[in-house]
Amino acid sequence: MIPNVNQALVARLAGRRVLVVGDMFLDEYLVGRAVRLSREAPVPVLERSHSFALLGGACNPAHNVAALGSQAVMAGVIGQDAAGQRMLDALGAAGIDPAGVVVDASRPTTTKTRLVAESVLRTPQHLARIDVIERRPLDETVEAALLARLEALAPGCDALLVSHYGSGVATPAVAARARALARRHGLLTVVDAQADLARFTGFDLVKCNRAEAEAELGQGLASQADFEQALARLLPLLAVKNLVVTRGSDGMSVVQAGQAVAHSPAVPVGDVYDVVGAGDTVVAVLTLALAAGVALEPAAHLANAAASLVVRKLGNAVVRPDELAAALAATA
């Protein structure tokens, strides 16, 4: 059953201040038209038409926070390179405060370059992706600098959102400092964890997808009953107040401490254009809604509606308040 979500809730997503920390990526797109097959290999030859770059990784939930009318403060690590400067420029253009960004000259800025073929008759198709990435943990000096930024920036924030893509930034020390800052300053703590769920015990909200929940529990999840049992096991195991497991086209299952597991169905979508970054939009909306005092189940429906919008766009996309209000009106 879809909760009765009033469009007025969208306005409550604005006016918050969220400190986002995690793995920062620059998503680069090289776009061209396929003109023939290569003579050297059975691959299409693209004649390049244009290129562009989008904020990815932990920058994407920060971008969604800003697009929805709240203030996002970015904390993370970039390299001392051209990609890092492009990322700082993009953060500024998106209205994101880069005050928590630390530069580490020993590692490259994570860059994910996608080759995309465009066509008159069909939507663009991804052909390949090349990543420049360093997965090693932060060295002690860089980690200390990042922790110091979190200490300085946490006061005055409503929430601290950790985006853990497994690229070395969301270390155990960062998770521990987030918990300490939450206690000290009354912050809502949220994590979007692609792995290491136990690292974030005691957070206010842990969000993961089905595969990540399956890996944590060591069992497959298929039926509604499977998810109900899984969330009931994970909630006390992680000692969290709220738990969300996303399920793609099946929406998401959610549970709040002391309450029964609920299932929030996905908002119907026509053609899915690109699912990249949909989870980032979901966690951004959940964070803003909970920070505004919205209960978990209607917050999940808001997040589902937002996800239904971004999957219709190419690459990491953001949702605007007017778009989200219109989507909610269409499902009312």
Write the layout of secondary structure elements.
Layout lengths: L7 H4 L5 E6 L1 E14 L6 E14 L1 H9 L3 E8 L3 H12 L3 E7 L6 E9 L6 E8 L7 H14 L5 E6 L7 H14 L2 E6 L11 E5 H8 L6 H15 L3 E5 L5 E5 L5 E3 L13 H14 L4 H15 L10 H11 L1
Helix pairs in contact: 2-8, 4-5, 8-9, 9-10
Describe the protein in words.
With 332 residues, the chain is an alpha/beta fold. The chain has a single domain (8-25, 56-110, 134-331), classed as Ribokinase (UDP-N-acetylmuramoyl-L-alanine:D-glutamate ligase, 3-Layer(aba) Sandwich). The protein is built from 10 helices and 13 strands. The chain has helices spanning 8-11, 59-67, 82-93, 140-153, 172-185, 210-217, 224-238, 278-291, 296-310, 321-331; strands spanning 17-22, 24-37, 44-57, 71-78, 97-103, 110-118, 125-132, 159-164, 188-193, 205-209, 242-246, 252-256, 262-264. The strands form 2 sheets. A 9-stranded mixed sheet has the order 5-4-1-8-9-10-11-12-13, with helices on both faces. It has a 4-stranded mixed sheet with strand order 3-2-6-7. The longest helix has 15 residues, at 224-238. The chain is globular. The model has no long low-confidence stretch (mean pLDDT 92).
